[in-house]
Each structure stands twice: as structure tokens, then as C-alpha cells.
Amino acid sequence: MSMSPTSPASPPTTALSSGVRDATTGQASQNLGWLLQDFLAQVPGTQGAFLVARDGLVLAAAGLSADEADRAAAVAAALYSTGEAAGAITFRPAGAVQQIIVQHDTRYTILMSTPDHHVESSVAVGCVLGVLAGADAHTGLVGNRMAAMVVSVAEHMVTAARTTPPSSTSDATDVVGGHSDER
Q1: Fewest beta carbons within 10 Å, which of 64, 110, 111, 169?
Q2: Which domains does the chain have, with CATH numbers?
């Protein structure tokens, strides 16, 4: 097995989990980069793994440079959105996107959705777990191990639901209890 001159001897780990929330507490979750690195070490044929918010924010990655993780996040968000649209082709609801597999000549890109959770009247939105696997990887095993990871740590693989900030106005009037209060 030969490595290309641009390939590092050991894959880099990008851990950006500040946006990941524990669905049971709503608190920021611990860095999940170690979990992805462990996944790569245990599952034969895997080359990279990443956890992204459904809107494309990188939360954690292993085996990828920061630039590769950003590209993976953008692609995962686009594919997830496309999967949702594909489920709406007919008027019969298809349900949530569960898994997407893209087969390339030399590797697979496998995406799996983590479930949403409800915490104290707020919604913690699930994420997308992605794995890059070589063409010789057993995709059934990779998918099975991804599903097992999602089930075992799903409550840690969520992000807080994003809300649209209120529109700002040019005046500084605040209405409280039906009365305006000039600032």
C-alpha cells in the first residue's frame, strides 16, 4: 500500500463540537472528534468521518483536514436537503431521511441522519453523520456500525434549533406590557 506524497502519515482530526448539544441537558456536549477517530480505527476501509449540522456547520471530523471537513459538510447538507426533496415527490409523506449512499469509482460517501430530540419544550435538531469509505470497504458493515453509533450516542449528536433573529428597527422603542418605553 503506497500513500500519495500529499497524504499525511496519520489522518488529521478536526474537532469543532462547540455547536453540539446534549439532548438530555441542552448543555454543550464534549468533543465528539475522539468518537469519530475511534470509529475510523475500528471499522475497516473507512478513510474519514464527520458530524455536521443539517445546515452544513462542521461539528466534528476525523481523518479530514479542516478544508476537507468544510467541503464534506457542504456536500452533506446539500445531499440531505436533496433527500428530503426526494421524499416529497409524491403527496404521500416518505418520512425523515435515514441514509444516503453515493458510490464513486474509488470510494463511498455514506450519510446517516441522527434523530431530533425534544428537551423542555425546545427541539434539539439531529445532525448528519458522514463516513468516507474505500471502494473495498464492506458498506453493510460500515452502515451497521454507523447505525450502532447513532443509536448509542444520539442524544449527544444534536444541535440547538436555530431561530431567526428578530428584525431590528431604526427606533429604540420597546413595548412591554402594552406600554412603550423610550430608551
Answers
A1: 169
A2: 13-162 (3.30.450.30)
